[in-house]
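DATA SHEET
Item: assembly model
Revision: 1
Owner: S.N.
Input lines:
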Amino acid sequence: MNGAPQRHPERAGNRRIRGSSRLAARRLPMDMPAIESLRGRFEASMGALEEVYINGRGGTRLPTVSNISFRYTEGPALLAAVTKNWLFPRVRLAPLHPGTLHVLTSMGLGRDLAFSSCDSASGD
Amino acid sequence: MLGQKGRHIITVQTEHSAVLDTCTRLEKSGFEITRLGVDEQGAIDSDELAASIRADTILVAVMMANNETGVIQDMATISAITRAKGVWFFTDATQAVGKVPVSVRAPDVDLMAFSAHKFYGPKGTGALYIRRRDPRVRLMPLIDGGGHERGSAAAP
């Protein structure tokens, strides 16, 4: 890891964080509007399907995240479909990450629907 | 020390496990934890937050943006409540930095943590903002043995 002279200079520390912060600040106004627009189109299409729910929609959200529940879809089928067809660079399926179910159940989703969910992110 | 004021911490049911599990650990060592619920949009009720703060409350920990849903909490209102009540406000901004504008001054926070790999930085690194004045926030180091980062980090 490069980026700082500490430990002669074997350890990269604070300067690397500062540099990446500056880069992120510079990229944010360029990247996020386009990503949010794409997310909007994606959710409009998904939301038009029956028994598909966009979780957290209507509130203030990050422009990069979509969390979607598919009622009547079991975990393995969801996994197969997402692996084959999904567009986002990062997808996390609730069946594979049951430790995250508490977020959706706290928002009022039943455990079955929460289990048939995935969250997608771009820009990570 | 803050621990002399009380041992009550407020957090949210939808926090990342890094916070929830830490709170559970603290609970076992005598702290009392209030976990606020959220509405269907994933937002906390600010009135419930205000009502939950007690004389012995020492910290409110609310993440800026949720890692599962992207839901952003009303930081300005939470900050105003905690400032008015004199309780420290910690926010986990890991998901928000690099995605939305983030500042430690507007709204005011006392502690803010974020992880570098979320904004082009190397994995395994991150940063913790600690307010220096009005009020000055001082933390005990997890490991003793060095004066780095103004005594907060030991790296002999």
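QC remark: Strands of chain B lie at 8-12, 32-36, 57-61, 88-92, 111-115, 126-130.
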